[in-house]
Amino acid sequence: MTTLRQACYLSIDLEDYKHATMLDMGLEPRTNPEQTWRGVTRILSVLRETKSHPAVTFFTTGQVARDQPDLVREMAAQGHEIACHSDQHENVYSLNRDKFLHNLRRAKDALEAAGGQPVIGFRAPNFSIDERTTWAYPVLAEAGFTYDSSLATNHPRTKAEAYDVMTLSDRELFVFPIYRHMLTGTHGIRVIGGTFFRLLPLSLIVTLMKKSAALGYVPLIYLHAADADDQPNPVRWNEMRRLPYASRCAWSLRQQQWLLGAHSVADKLRSILTLFAHQGPMQTALPVHTAVR
Q1: What is the DSSP string of the chain?
Q2: Sheet holding 187-190: strands in order across?
Q3: What is the domain range of residue 111?
Q4: Whole-number mean pLDDT of the chain?
Q5: Residue 2: predicted pLDDT
Q6: Do the domain assignments include residue 1?
Q7: What is the CA radius of gyration of the chain?
Q8: Is residue 13 in a domain?
Q9: For the NodB homology domain, which residue ranges apply (predicted)?
């Protein structure tokens, strides 16, 4: 007797690790397209080994679309959904309304030019749409987005759909919430991806995903290309020479944390996708008439 797998969505947050990190450092950014290709290739090779849907959603920065249009074009040609992950991986709370709208439009134009398909989904870097930035939702709708995947919450859900519906003044915005398992105070584990996926043991990841599903969420797996790259290439000490010594030390340690566990990502993902069935691009969950505007 075949046991039905629980549903999940696998998505890739596609930014250039070196470019985004150097930008956070306040340095003139450099790109590392080889790392981006390696990580994407590794994740997709695992997906092909499973019986899950062969296409995913790529939440992609405008910077990647401008600097690596061949990658975005190839992913679109393979049937993947191209969605938006900001323009240069800026946190939403670092922007005001006008800058955020400009950011969205610039990124959306670059992504649609590279991928040749409408871009209707958005995920904020670091899930940075929160209680400080609720003004961002009507801006997303104004910029032409249909859904958002930035909300991390621990509230139980009762809906069968993977999304909630947010009613704005003149339209609806579909919101795919990600479950946050609370630890203490305001600290919790987003279920599940990034550092949590790399560092937590497989058994705990599966337990958290099952708890997420029991609370009414469709578990969302989010991986970055750098998470799956087994040839780590952090920003080097000499590339940080314009920073104060203490900052260089802090950033070196921080990057070591970000790179730990990359070797285990493929095996963990392979095991998880035997238990949870990836459902395909996230836009396919939406009502048919809203999938493309």
Answers
A1: -PPPPEEEEEEEEE--HHHHHHHHHTS-----HHHHHHHHHHHHHHHHHSSS-S--EEEE-HHHHHH-HHHHHHHHHTTPEEEE--SSS--GGGS-HHHHHHHHHHHHHHHHHHH-S---EE--GGG--STT-TTHHHHHHHTT--EE---EE------SSS-EEEE-SSSEEEE--EEEEEEETTEEEETTBHHHHHHS-HHHHHHHHHHHHHTT---EEEEEGGGG-SS--PPPGGGGTTS-HHHHHHHHHHHHHHHTTGGGHHHHHHHHHHHEEE---GGGGS-GGGS--
A2: 152-153, 178-184, 187-190
A3: 6-286
A4: 91
A5: 45
A6: no
A7: 18
A8: yes
A9: 23-293
Is residue 161 very low, low, confident or very high in pLDDT (cuts 50, 70, 90)? confident
Q: What pLDDT is stored for residue 1 in this prediction?
A: 39
Count of domains forming the chain: 1
Structural domain includes residue 125: yes
3 has a pLDDT exceeding 70: no
Alpha-carbon torsion, ordered 290, 177, 13, 130, to 10 deg: 110
Total residue count of the chain as it appears in this document: 293
pLDDT-based confidence at 81, cuts 50/70/90?
Answer: very high
The CATH number assigned to the domain holding 269 equals 3.20.20.370
What's the mean pLDDT in 151-158? 91
Q: Which one, of 21, 89, 36, lies nearest residue 251 by Cα?
A: 21
**Does 292 map to a domain?**
no
